[in-house]
From TrEMBL:
InterPro entries: Pur-cyt_permease (IPR001248), Uracil/uridine/allantoin_perm (IPR045225). The keyword Lipid biosynthesis does not apply. One of its GO terms (cellular component) is plasma membrane. This is Thiamine permease. It is found in: Membrane. Its main location: membrane. It comes from Mesobacillus campisalis. The chain crosses the membrane at residues 26-47, 53-79, 100-119, 139-157, 162-182, 202-221, 242-263, 321-342, 348-367, 387-406. It is a multi-pass membrane protein. One of its GO terms (molecular function) is nucleobase transmembrane transporter activity.
Length: 449
């Protein structure tokens, strides 16, 4: 009798023997995911914003280490139990409360899906207009890339990880070429940006917060990818995340910095085009941006959204993939990304995502000592994670208080929201507030009988 095929795209736990990814595949997937224009823009924007070169490099290094660290420590629920993020949330938020927390996660995911696709369309449009004198066709390119995303993700996680790992080498080779091009063709005068005092204060920490917030979503649902990884242990996760995130992250920030120094342009795409030695480079740049944005979107946007829609709307993976793509168009990224309020939008959603991460880590490592009950996680009628009508009062009170702290210091929202909520949640859990709500609910039902 043949062994029943394991659904790698569903919500049920994946046993270690059925997982398709080794740590090397995992690293390649993250390399292709982290090499994106959004991370490159950190270097250009921060240098233009008043920090000096040393401070921008420090922001890149610190934010890269933070992202890798939190991806690692938040991956263990997926590694150990093979569960996706939306199931992991039930231990702290309750089986109904998890859906609220997940909606707060997938809204920015869908927005970034649209933005990543739009950046790819802008790259195609710019190259086609510059090299071939074609008319502006941003929207046809945008819809074409949206269809490409659906095609590549339609069959599930195995195709996504295969595509990402395969094109990672191509992306890295092009990235090395960009380094060479900037060093040879760019007018690199660092003195202007090394002699300014910059800031080691709010501006510096605001830069770290904004850079880290770029991947606030990825740090939250890293278990979605880690559940595909074997062997499922801490060493594998550490190697995969630190080798997969920090090198490309720092490289992209540094390239963005070099582009701004060489051209004075805070648009990385336009800056690279200004350094282009010949038309062939334009085509190489277009290929790079398309591959970089697609691989990033597949891992950081399509995967979590498609899993979420299975739980929220009881739909199949394939339907979730199509819905994710459709909603990414509805977000109108051509307006969102160009808006003066874009970074405010990023800080607002970080005001919730930082606290949610704080709750997850406090719950898993401090409250539960790294132990979950998978049977109870999937039991919606009873069990340890039912709480008060399916919601954990401790988690929601902590999240709201943490979000208020973040809103009060919006420019460093993620940096203050995460640690404050971490502490608040532990104090609330230790106070027994969940049990008090639960016992009060039981008593009221008994009295009413």
């Amino acid at each position: 009798m043949s062994k029943k095929a394991v659904d790698l795209n569903g919500l049920n736990p994946i046993s270690e023997s059925d997982r398709p990814m080794t740590w090397k595949t995992y690293v390649l997937s993250f390399w292709s995911t982290a090499i994106i224009i959004q991370v490159m823009a950190i270097g250009t924007f921060l240098l233009q914003g008043g920090l000096n070169i040393y401070q921008v490099i420090a922001v890149g290094v610190i934010s890269g280490i933070l992202v890798a660290t939190f991806c690692t420590v938040n991956s263990f629920a997926g590694l150990k139990y093979g569960i996706p993020f939306i199931i992991q949330l039930r231990s702290s938020f309750g089986y109904r409360g998890a859906k609220v927390a997940y909606i707060l996660r997938i809204v920015p995911a869908i927005c970034w899906y649209g933005i990543g696709t739009w950046l790819g369309a802008l790259a195609i449009n710019q190259v086609m207009m510059t090299l071939f004198n074609l008319p502006e066709m941003k929207f046809p390119y945008f819809f074409f890339l949206t269809v490409v995303h659906i095609f590549l993700s339609y069959r599930g996680i195995k195709d996504i990880t295969w595509f990402n790992a395969t094109v990672a080498t191509v992306i890295c080779v092009i990235l090395i070429y960009f380094f060479y091009l900037i060093l040879v063709n760019g007018q690199l005068d660092f003195t202007k940006y090394t002699n300014i005092p910059g800031s080691w204060g709010w501006l510096f920490f605001g830069g770290i917060s904004a850079a880290t917030a770029n991947w606030a979503t990825v740090m939250l649902n890293n278990s979605d990818l880690a559940r595909q990884l074997r062997p499922g242990n801490g060493k594998t996760s550490f190697l995969g995340n630190f080798a997969g995130i920090i090198p490309p992250w720092i490289s992209m920030v540094f390239i963005g910095l070099l582009i701004f120094v060489a051209t004075g342009n805070d648009d990385p795409i336009a800056g690279l085009m200004a350094l282009a030695p010949n038309p062939t480079f334009g085509i190489i740049l277009m290929i790079f941006i398309i591959l970089a944005q697609i691989t990033s979107n597949l891992t950081t946007s399509v995967l979590p959204a498609a899993l979420a829609f299975q739980d929220l709307f009881k739909m199949k993976w394939t339907t979730g993939v199509i819905l994710s793509a459709s909603l990414s168009v509805v977000t109108m990224p051509w307006i969102l990304f160009s808006s003066q309020w874009f970074f405010t939008f990023q800080n607002i959603y970080s005001s919730f995502l930082g606290p949610i991460l704080g709750i997850l880590l406090a719950d898993y490592w401090i409250i539960r000592k790294g132990k979950l009950n998978p049977d109870h996680l999937y039991n919606k009628e009873s069990g340890a994670y039912r709480y008060f009508k399916g919601f954990s009062p401790a988690a929601f009170i902590a999240m709201i208080l943490g979000a208020l702290v973040s809103f009060s210091l919006l420019k460093v929202a993620w940096l203050v929201g995460f640690p404050s909520t971490f502490v608040i949640y532990i104090l609330l859990k230790k106070s027994g507030i969940d049990e008090k709500f639960q016992s009060g609910h039981v008593e009221s039902k008994t009295v009413g009988m």
